[in-house]
Amino acid sequence: MKYGRLLAAAGALALLAAVYLVGGEPEKMADERLLAFAPRSVRALTLDRPDAPLIAIEKTGDGWRMVRPLQTAADKGEVEGIITAAASAPVEKRIGPVADLAPFGLDRPVTVTILPTDGDPAVIRIGGMNPDQTLRYLAVGDGKEVVAVGRSVGAALFRNLFELRQKRLVSVTVDAVDRVSVEGDAGVVTEVERVGKEWRLIRPYPLPASREQVVATLAVLTNLEASGFYETPEEIATARPSVTRRIRLGFGGKEIALDTGTAPNGAGIVVVDGLVARVAPDLFDALPEGPGDFLDLRLLGGEEEGATRIDYRRDGLTVTLMRDAERWQVTAPVKEEADPNGVEALLHHLAWSEGGALVAGPGFDPKAFGLDTPFAEATVTDRPGRSRTVTVGRRGENYFVTATGWSWVAAMKREEAESLLPTSPPVDRRFFRIDAASVRQATVERLGQRFVVESGEKGFRMTAPKQALLKDEAYHRFIWGLLEMAHGGDYAGKPPAGMALATVEVIGEGGTVNRVAFFRAADGDGYIAVDRPHTRPVRVDARLVTTGLVETLELLMESIDE
What is the pTM of this model? Predict the structure, then answer.
């Protein structure tokens, strides 16, 4: 055992000895309270730590203010937590009068003094913990009577300067704010104001603002909390950032101003009412930067339900999707059943994708942003016949977007613009419209060879090129592999030319027959298409139609249960 552990063990034994030398710890006291005073009568309190300046807090109306060592607002919840703990905390154990307070950590205690409006001050001296860390030792007044309270009670009393000061940086509620102004580092000012129950953008463009967006922004601002403060002139000098944003909140003719930026050490800094507070730098991601933060920039406003038709075009491709009951069909450029997952993903992307920075307001010139000859455009129609259109323009390397209901243009990131619409129709690329459990027979014809496997009441069998029983695992792996191979890829438009390398036929319950063909085209690409006639061709990795099928068949032959 190391020397430090010996000292710790010796200290614990000494404390236990001190407790039991005074007669041991009796049973828990029955409903005995630490102090007797009315919490509402408290007008002030102090907290004196041996290793820190005295903290003094006074009542101010419905709140509390710290007057020492700082002049600042106090955290109401923390202050009233101390008062409540002192007034209502039950005494868990009474140790009794002791000659030596040191074993209980009461020789250099933290002293809490509560000053009621009437009556004498209530003084609590806070000491150490018992050996198993479940109780905290206290002494009331200036005597040597020691009691023990629960660990949580001790924690409520044992607060430090940071915990007791107000950490919320904005002392106003969301509903009270009637104006928000944001000035960026380029001097651009964005301003919104409340008009009745709604909000309106005043600068830089007169536009209706999204109440949802404004309230969400205000919720972030009014709940800003410091993770630390810079106090001394030296600390402030090294931490004060160059201001990147100045945010003003107006309420009832008053105003709160917040300067935000990043300190040289990377910490986020908010300066408000003379305080220099440290906050998490990623918190700035949720703070407003410009007019776009007060508008609903979702392309379709987050609505994706109820669509019955989608028309879109990009890169010379024009696609139409129609919904009949619950099924989607591709009606142009081909007539095919649509992939429901693909359509769902398309709608979700259109509904929830957002524009970025606002770049133009009412009366904008579409030509200036390439919106007169769109890079991409999509129109979504719902059951009542309402149509909403998203238009993406391109100028050089820059992309811009506008939508139905907008009277503005927003910038759009290149990757978001190019992934907004699929480059091929979202056809259902399942060649086999059947699940593995329903397959009764599968036939593969490749280079003159024929492989047939069957599922029946007596198990799984191969009937060609030879008769053999198949292990359950081998059969299911083979069927699943075939179904997965004939799936996916990029829609190719026209059937590939040339002879098929292989054909796969799957027969399901009820005699349903599905046939697909695997091609290796002259361009070297691999293709899969529905067989006879070849339709719904998709382009796949060439290795899939060459080595992929061969490997699947080889695994089947190796798994024959002889």
Answer: 0.64
